[in-house]
């Protein structure tokens, strides 16, 4: 997702799934139209399953992740989570929003392995909820 309109449209929808720190929005797109030519000599060919495009966007505001290192860690984990779950997610526009910051006392370093594991686990749980 790259246009402001698609972000606004996704943010205007009810969240598909939410967790302690993240909210996941989904805007379904119409099924792709199949262009098949009708032959007068035989039966109509079976349409192949339509593959919808999966467009992804994320919002990671400075208010919830003050340090650039933390924002980049979350971005990398978001990309990896969508790559892992792309086949299970229905097509359309997906927008992931960081809605709460991570506790600084629990994660002393802004890019610690513990924070990376916590973000990954939370995103995987969120994606599983959205796939249902």
Structure description:
The protein contains three helices and four strands; from the N terminus they run H-E-E-E-H-E-H. It has 132 residues and is α+β, with helices and mostly antiparallel strands. The chain has a single domain, classed as 2-Layer Sandwich (Ribosomal Protein S5, domain 2), CATH 3.30.230.10. It has a four-stranded mixed sheet, sandwiched between helices. It is globular, with a radius of gyration of 19 Å. The two termini are 23 Å apart. The relative contact order is 0.24.
CA distance, first residue to last residue: 23 Å
Structural class: alpha+beta
Helix-strand string: HEEEHEH
Please, what is the average pLDDT?
83
Supply the number of helical segments.
3
Instruction: For the largest sheet, list the strands in their spatial order.
Output: 1-2-4-3
Can you tell me the CATH topology?
Ribosomal Protein S5, domain 2
Structure keywords:
132 residues, Ribosomal Protein S5, domain 2, 4 strands
What is shown here, in short?
The chain has 132 residues and is α+β, with helices and mostly antiparallel strands. It contains three helices and four strands; from the N terminus they run αβββαβα.
What is the topological layout?
Layout (H helix, E strand, L loop, with lengths): L3 H8 L3 E4 L3 E6 L26 E6 L8 H18 L6 E7 L14 H19 L1
Parallel strand pairs: 3-4
Antiparallel strand pairs: 1-2, 2-4
Helix pairs in contact: 2-3
